[in-house]
Structure prediction request, 770 residues.
Amino acid sequence: MSPFSSGLPGVLQDAGLVLGLFMSLTIGSYLIRDNFLARLGQYVLIGAGLGYLAVLVWRNVLWPRLFAPLIADPLSWQSPTGSDLSNLWLPILLGVLMWGGGLELLRLPPDRFAGRVLLRLLAAAPAAILGGVVLGVAVSGAVQGTLWPLLAAALQLPQAEAVAAAPGPADSGRAAWLVRLLTLLITGGVLIHLQNGPIAGEKENRTSPSRASSPQEADAGAGGRPNLYRMLILTLLRVWEGIGRRALWLAAGIIFARLVASRFSLALARLDYLLFELPRSDLWQLLWALLRGGGS
Amino acid sequence: METGSPLAAFDCPHCGYSNPAASQFCVHCGTNLARRQPPPAPAGESADEPNDLAAAQETAPPRPGVASEGRKPSAGSTDPGAPRTRPHGSSEAEEATGETGKEKPEPDAVRPGPSLGGLGGLLEPADPLAFIASDAGALDPTRDPSTALSGELTTDEEERRQLRQLFSEDLPLPVGARPATTSDTEETARNGNGLQRQFWLEMVLLLGMVGALLWGGQLPPGGAGPHPLPGLEQVHRQIDTLPPNSLVLVNWAYDPATAGEMDLVAKPLIEHLLQRQAKLIVFSQLPGGPATARRVIASAEESLQRPSRTQITANLVIEAGYLPGGAASLPLLGVAPARALPVDPGWVELRERFSIAALGETGPALSLVIAARAEDVRRWLEQVQPLNGGPVVAATSAVAGPAVRPYLHSGQLAGLVSGWDGGAVYVRRLDRARGAAEQGRSLRLASGQNWGVAILILALLLGNLAGLNQRRYR
Prediction:
């Protein structure tokens, strides 16, 4: 177990509850207006969070996985092998380069800090590696984990790696075609709406008034394609876009409903903690007894 | 030239996020902000800014802390179609000198053509319909090709921007990053007086919830409880069929910020896993995750009502700690979990080391992702699940549920529990008696949800009626 698992004495746990009450009230006072206590609560929270993160990274990552193997006794099981040495020294080197690039944040005057440009150039190497790796991982992951499996599921292509879902009812095959058609219809409609908005005739008329003296002429276009063909295409696109727009708002309504449920849960949990859990703690009982005793 | 304070910011026209003034791209969605800003003043109009500097600002990235003159948004615009790009940190005195006047976009200014403007599906919209509707199409020199790229948002674009913002928002914004509201009377008149009553609505909601908590738990439980959404039964089946000592890899992707909701979802699943004597290897990519996991697991053990709970923890739960690196560190977890897990050998007992080594050889019998954001489930399904191929079940917040559900239908997720309602239904399926305190708390929370939703629906109805009435009198 980690050193963080040792737990706290009961009194300290109760003190945490009372401190939580204080922090909740200070930050909650933002509901009334932006005030000093609300800001103080935020700053304490951010500072404590950053301090905790620093300790966690040192004790959970930097020391056990980087520094301890480097300085370990060569005969110890913790000592690194040859390949591990490159795995350990390379991160240190890149990290130091990154820290060097961050020296600029110390606000040193440029004329007294001649190597600033060099440090920035050197820091670009780890930043580029980091950015490239993240981008590569994200793009390949999006293709193998989202784009292809969801597309395959929509088209019902066989997926070797897909986990077998629960078997559906007997007539699910027939319903699947309807679902696929709806998926295609709604996805296309939403894409058309997000790409072009309420489209077609209005935008066309708005952008090219000088090239057509009448809507019929505008529909005909310079190439003289038949009116019927163009009007049919535009009408279909308008209808499709309208379906997409309504589906989008329907989905937005569903997400909003779940968002409300989610936020209500958070608020209720905090209120429940203040109204029921906190008064049960020993420290609160003690404080309450002291207050009542002092008042009498 | 120094313009405004370094803290100056403006809202992204694509997602509404408040960005620092020197940003070229939106921090949240990656939209090219430089293109959305008005072009720099023409040469000769500004006496204190050389022409070459203005040209350089078009091409060179901005220096930290120095806001680009050409990118500074216009303030105080009352045009409903104008972009909401106000410098929050700009001084009033600066505006009074009329500096903003010379930053208005010139109609004849050269605008950039359509190009790739960002990542993640945020490409600037082209206009393929122009090729259908007109033979000349977008290649016509008389047509303005950058209608969608100019700094002006039409009403339709604004509506779509709001939609994108709604779909992209998973977590509450921190207080300092709340989208700026304005006291402009014209905007208030446009949006209606309801915005001024937001404070009272919040107070009524708060009082309603307090009332529900105080008195809702004393009411007799009646009516229909929460309904199970699809996916819950599959989760129960997956866990229920686990043989004892199965290795379960748990990605704890929430921290105290969302614990109020997520604890209700996570605790029943952890309890069920402990009931089945599964061996949990718990890690988190959030700094506050391991501590949150420890607290919830301890609480789940208490619910088990067994004599030796400490022994259960020592045998069944391995704390793998904090795994930094975000999505980039996940592929290694899929290929070689024993190497990727941030376990300090000094803290782990010998038999637990064998369990972790076995995880590398056989893979987990089940992966459980407990996430407040859909992003974390998606990352797992993109980076880990295709590599180890094991079954994955997810427990998410209510708002993340709809975004994750397509993965359930595609078969990538073997089960899904979302929201407080999912947690409440799952608790009822556990094979144990619930205490009076637990039942009372469940009843209180359900009452609070019902009262809150009722107040919100009432406010929506009254607001719409008031709006219709106001429109009739206009």
